[in-house]
Input
Amino acid sequence: MMRLELVKRPQRSALFSALSPFIAFALTIIAGAIMFALLGVNPLTAFRIYFIEPISQVWQLHELAIKAAPLILIAVGLSVCYKANIWNIGAEGQFILGGIFGSSIPVLFPQFEGPLVLPLMLLLGMVGGAAYAAIPALLKTRFGTNEILTSLMLVYVAQLFLDWLVRGPWRDPQGHGFPQTIQFGDSAVLPELMPDAGRANWGFAFALIAAVLIWILMSRMLKGFEVRVLGSSPRAGRFAGFGLNRMVFFAFLLSGALAGLAGISEVSGAIGQLQPVISPGYGFTAIIVAFLGRLNPLGIVAAGLVLALTYLGGEAVQSALGISDKVARVFQGMLLFFVLGCDTLIHYRIRLIGLALTKPDGAAKLDAAPKLKEAR
Amino acid sequence: MGANQDGTNLLEVRGLTKIFGALTACDHIDLDIARGEIHALLGENGAGKSTLVKMLFGSLEPNSGEIFWNGQAVRITSPGVAKKLGIGMVFQHFSLFEALTAAENIALSLDDGSPIGSIAAKARALSYSYGLPLDPESMVGDLSVGERQRIEIIRCLLQTPQLIILDEPTSVLTPQEADKLFETLERLRSEGKSILYISHRLEEVKRICDRATVLRHGKVVGHCNPREETAASLARMMVGNEVQAVVRAPAEGIETAQPLLEIRGLTRKPATPFSIPLRNISLNVRAGEVIGIAGVAGNGQGEFFESVSGEVLQQDAASVRIRGKDAGGLTITGRRLLGAAFVPEERLGHGAAPRMKLSENLLLSRHATDGKAFVGTGGMVKSGAIYAASQRIIAAMDVRKSAPDPEAAALSGGNLQKFIVGRELDRRPSVMVVNQPTWGVDAGAAARIRQTLIELSRSGSAVLVISQDLDELFEISDAIAVMHNGELSKPMPIAEATFEKVGLLMGGAEPGHAEHTLETA
Output
């Protein structure tokens, strides 16, 4: 009998570390081709419709930017968390709470207009996301709970809370009973960047600015150094005098604020009102974006555009070929799978072991246990 | 196995080679071990001793070379094969479950399904017959390091090996415990068993070993009879050149000097069921002196270091005072700002972040104390300044490295330790606390580190050194205190200290004993 074992490589190949996202993307394409073939569609046609046609005209590039903006904003925040070895999986919930907090001004005070409205909404959105992210941070530092579970479960709380709001207290009285708030007034709508060319709004600019700022933070500033030290060797971080609890709050509040900003930008810019569902899973897809971008803010911009394309492509194949738009989720899942797989194989190699001879000693097995954090 | 008693050696190794990437850890090693001899394997850290032994015990597979057991070529593919041949090993770092009894731990490794009662009886009988008394029913967590080592030795002996490999066995023992062990080893030799004894302690090798094989940089540099050599000549073979002796000028005017580090009634509850509580520790370290803290590993030194450094805070702010100010409530950063510097025992992962560059590791302990020099407005790191400062330290401490600014993990242990010590010395700290300054460091680097610690104290700083290496403490300390089971004895002036006195305290003799000696002296 044979079995597989992962053995840690003494050295990582720098070349393959850099190539890994591209290899993962290529493998995704191959697996996708097999999937399309099994669905009875010519893979080449499907790929043209999925990946090329959605970005062949300028207005379509604007649509791409609209989809990419929240992904990038959330993912750069998450990259700080993950670099610090803190696992915020609840960005989707923080996104929703940001949307709700920011929308409170146009919904509750529709008469309030002027240039102050929008900055205030954006600020409230960030506060909402950060406040919601503070809950798992508090639970982790105070009671030692696992932040993966708490932040994830809070997503469902946020989703149901939004659903209740738009069906109950915040429903538009003139909305014929539809579960949605009033349309925001003009001063509460995030302006478009280039109204003549397409719909892309300032949310995309926020995303790019955030990516650059976080890149400076992580690579040039003492705070970023603190994040990296505590994430890679917590004991050395403690020796340096950096507090782990403070870092948990910093990472959660920062990523929550960015997710909240993404939420209010999406509601105010792309939707224009609150609805029962304001996100096609941006908060979860952003996790893929963060890893595909190798937790580097600039890589995340590129990865965000790629993942945004999977959303657009999903819609395109649905209308053109009649394939379910769930295919977008399949592509995203495969991409994450292959990225993590490639990263694991950069750190470890596979060894085939015959069981007949001897028992392996336990130490080797422990050492070989792959950890998610190694995927960085 | 007794059939083959003609002149052949028990074990012969020919041309054994092991390559890790670009590093040849063992390069065509030849080694013969006769029946009934204690054979020393000498070499500095990183000379290839551990790699060689792991190949003999089947934990590593050689790239080339042959191993002959009783004259027959064998392939030792796993520790199981080694055990079957009759090779037993006692590792430097024990693999025992603390929450199980000694007998249960032995049963786990024997793995032959015999009932625990009979194993316990056999272990007890064996342990007494070899003069290593052991209670098989006792919980490993309650045992001292020396007693844990006995479990490992008994466990090894129960498998009736022909060759026993001991890896640095005395590094965790008091001098008295070591004497006991030597008696056992001589007894085993008289029974015709062979022992491969790995050590870098030359005196004990001279004392008990019949022959020695010396390794340097993965190659055999010589075979000799250690009894005919001097410690100096053995050291020369190991290191390749003369190691400069550490010079300790007499400390002058210490009696009247200010205490810069004061510890008063420091007490700490155990953080985990297996950690040691600190019991009412008091100690003054004055400007201009080096105080050494001796003790067997695991008697609270780690807990003590954490408490003094501020990685763990104290309830009573006055229990740690630095330069006359209460520091018990200050974090490590606060204590550094008072002028203290710290070097922890673990280099990788505690004193340095393994995957970060040396310049970044400089920032690790100095981002607050040298805030102006290294961190600019708005929290931007001045990478040019930290690079320049790290190069200055690298030059001052003669840190050998392969790239201008390599990751900490790419340096050898000794060179990384030189950098970490240099990083703190570069600040001219007025209080320096070092835990195991030269653990796993080659002799040349160790001498350099010791010398710099003495020089720091002579320039007016207070230096506190925690070490398991008694030779080291006698070399550099002006006074030695002993830590045992979370208690600290009164410091003994070096002129009055002897290995025997310190050893007794390490073994748990009354701390008052030291006071006694002081009074009578």
User: Anything to note?
Assistant: The longest strand of chain A covers residues 2-8.
